[in-house]
Amino acid sequence: METYILLLLCLAAFCAGFVDAIVGGGGLIQTPVVMVLMPNLAVSSVIGSLKIPAFSGTSFAANQYLKKVELNWKLLSVMAVVAFGAAFLGSNLLTLVSNDFMKPLLLVVLILIAIYTFAKKDFGASQEKNLSANKQLLLGIVMSICIGFYDGFIGPGTGSFLVLGFVAILGFDFLNASANAKMVNLATNFGSICLFVLKGKIIWAIALPMAACNAFGGWMGAKLAIKKGNGFIRIFFLIIVVLTLIRFGYDVFKELL
Questions:
Q1: For the chain, what are the domain ranges?
Q2: pLDDT digit string, tens, across residues 80-115
Q3: How many angstroms separate the CA atoms of 106 and 112, rounded?
Q4: Which of 3, 53, 194, 203 is deepest in the core (most CB within 10 A)?
């Protein structure tokens, strides 16, 4: 591998870690970069290799949130176990079939998310729902199954979908949603890593340098999110959703032409 390619990959990993720490969606930065710079790699090898920097960046971001934000450990422990299993299964399916058919569906979902977030100005500004512990747990399990499987099978945007789920379904504000989402995202990443290690899909020469840069970006992004609070995170979330929408829209329409 030429040096400039590795440097570009590391820069993408830093940016991905920074963005992912705030609202998720870092995979939408580093995944396309790797696929452009190393087009001969199989999709499963790309996603498998990128789980290592994703895990390291999320770990450093989660550590920052742990210092400042109170987490619901009872809920998170169950969600993490379920998300781990779902991601493992999703990654296993990825090694067997293509995931391109999911992009048109995601395009529609992202359009709806962008419209709703923009229209509802107080979305995620404060804790809104007073769910019973049992109902919250049930909704958290369903959310973990769906998003965990998505992370293993597709990957990019998982952090953003987790933040959205914690806000829209479980009633968290954006700061608490971002903090709790990091813990579940760690579990989904670890589930995928276990599968990809067993399948021999990880390219360590790419994964390790990118992991260091992603971790530094995650550390910086989390500190900024904690400092700026809900309003900043909401705006950042909307920007990432729109950029994600553009990314998937480009992929879908390119395949149609």
A1: 3-256
A2: 999 999 999 999 988 887 656 656 666 676 676 666
A3: 10
A4: 53
